[in-house]
Amino acid sequence: MNRIDATGANVATLPGIKTLTGAQAVAHVIAAQGRPIVYGIPGGYTMHIYDALFPLQDKVETYLVRQESIATVMAEAQGRLTGRPAFVIGQGAWVLGNAGIGIMEAHLGASPVVLLIDATDGGSYSHLGPYQAGFGGYGAYDLAAAMSAITKQVFVATDPTQALQMTQLAVKHATTGEPGPVAVIFHGRSLFNHLNPGTEPPTYLDRSYQGPELPTAPDTTITAAADLIRRASNPVIVSGNGTRLSKAETQLLSFAQTLSVPVATTPAGKGTFPENDSLATGVIGSFGHATANEVVGGADLVIVVGSKLGATDTANMHPALINSSRQKLLQIDVEPLNLSWTFPADLLVHGDAANSLSRIEAQLTGYSGGGFKRVDAARRNHPYYNRPYSSTPGALSGRDVVTVLSEELADNAVVTCDAGENRLFVLHDFQSKQGGTMLQPNGGGGMGYAVPSAMAAAVNFPGRPVVAVCGDGGIAMSLHGLISAVELGLKLTVVVLDNNILGWVYNGQRGRTIASEFKDFDYAAIADAIGCGAIRVDTLDGFRAALLDAQQNSGVSVIVAMTTKSDRYQDIMSSLNSHDVYAVPQFDAIDE
User: pLDDT tens for residues 125-153?
Assistant: First the structure.
């Protein structure tokens, strides 16, 4: 029941309790969200928030994981895939110490996440030889300062009213403008004590603090964009992660097909446009497809949708790819600071991508960008998802394994990958289809991302095939993720490309091998002991059969593909890289 106090504020109450504690208020804020999901581990003072969620389990989904990094990556992936911020709840010391990978990915990749953490401050004793105390001062670490380095915003709640309102504001900040991770750090008294409407600011537990609707570009800008496109002879679209965040995939497909404009994606934007469409050119950049780099480089107008055009997207601003001195740029983004960031754009469309694309398309009736012919010519000039298999007896190619995923998975599959060479294989050899998507660690590019991001996809999209691809280095960092996935009863497949090396490092060492080789562990046996359906394969036919079997498994399947060391990142590296900047310098014999 609710009552209105003398100030007019709405103060929630529970049976037998005069007013809510700060922890109970936070729990009710969580429960008020659309399909609220919590990932984390109870600990420290956040146990009070979990306790307050106990009577709200019919409204809130909670997922206990085995380590805080699993929680933050799951939250990041959920935010990127759905636009709904997940809540990560855990003890601040260990969210900071263990979970930076997901927070950093969310910050750099613009995924909405809300982190609810405590500082285990110790109350009146916090200054006396502090233990796990995170509010700075002598002998303590500064949790707020540390979190501010990898989040969009940090709030510090010192009383129950602030605990309530700052949680509401955290949801707002995480989802307004360019999304990102937002942290609320709780003093113990902000969770333990009760709200006191007589002495504290008014609270509105039954109201939303949500931000405004996504920005809508003015009609004059939309008309100017249509005019710019109408004057172009060879336009091309570059689609980034912002297309996914805007849920603009359908509008992008309609725009491209109606106006016959080719589409390339950034690595982070892979999966926002079906790569088997006749207007698709693939991924641009340092490890992109030659088809995409050729079509983008030959365009007179580049329409950039939801991308910052970072250095890895543009092959370090290679002038043969995107060049403001010879091309016009039209840039669409919800975040104004992303507009004209890397290149000076000729026209800036500050607005939601889905809305902007639809309105521009409506003004271009009868226009054709001649994209079908240009894409066909580029595909005849360069290989495009038609690389022949290279596996031989005793030498299973990791690239071939990824190609089989393209052939056998349903169109609506969600594929995630890790850092390292396996990510390049997925970017280059897995062909995304309409209705499906692909996630990579596009912010910080850390290992250990594939499995927990696939777990989030399985939570949010039950019934869709979900596959995580990683190397033997990545799976060793994700064993606690496998345990969590089994415990949570999730359905997903993990493909491990096992060649006993850190592939990118090993191949970049030019034969001067140091600290890049692993022992041969039987990851299939380890996964089997965890409770996964697991198999080790060393042939392409064996992998194909194992993948088909895994799709019938209702739980977690692990396929360890014993792959060759002969697949190298240099084989995928674009011709735009005039030299291998990822390798160590070459040394003459005298240097030995």
Answer: 878 877 878 888 888 889 999 999 999 99
pTM: 0.94
Give the pLDDT band of residue 18 (cuts 50, 70, 90). low
Integer Cα distance of 237 and 353 in angstroms = 12
**Residue type at position 545:** A
Residues 400-447: pLDDT tens digits? Answer: 999 999 999 999 999 999 999 999 999 999 999 999 999 999 888 889
pLDDT in tens, 185-214: 999 999 999 998 877 888 888 888 888 888
**How many Å is the maximal CA-CA distance in the chain?**
86
Q: How far apart are CA 481 and CA 475, in angstroms?
A: 9
Angle (deg, nearest 10), helices 398-408 and 540-552? 40
Q: Give the integer Cα–Cα distance in Å for 360 and 355.
A: 9
Question: What are the structural domains, with CATH classification, of the chain?
Answer: 2-192 (3.40.50.970), 219-381 (3.40.50.1220), 398-571 (3.40.50.970)
3-state SS of 36-100 is CEEEEECCHHHHHHHHHHHHHCCCCEEEECCCHHHHHHHHHHHHHHHCCCEEEEEEHHHHHHHCH
CB distance 516 to 509 below 8 Å: yes
User: For residues 22-41, b (16+ Cβ closer than 10 Å) or e, as one string?
Assistant: bbbbbbbbbbbbeebbbbbb
> Quick check: helix, strand or coil at residue 566?
coil
Round to whole Å and give the CA distance between 175 and 185: 19
197 vs 216, residue with greater confidence? 216
Work out whether strand 181-186 and strand 437-439 pair parallel, antiparallel, or are unpaired.
unpaired
Q: What is the DSSP letter of 396?
A: B
One-letter identity of residue 446: G
**With contact defined as beta carbons under 8 Å apart, do 333 and 374 qualify?**
no
**Nearest-angstrom CA–CA distance, 113 and 183:** 8
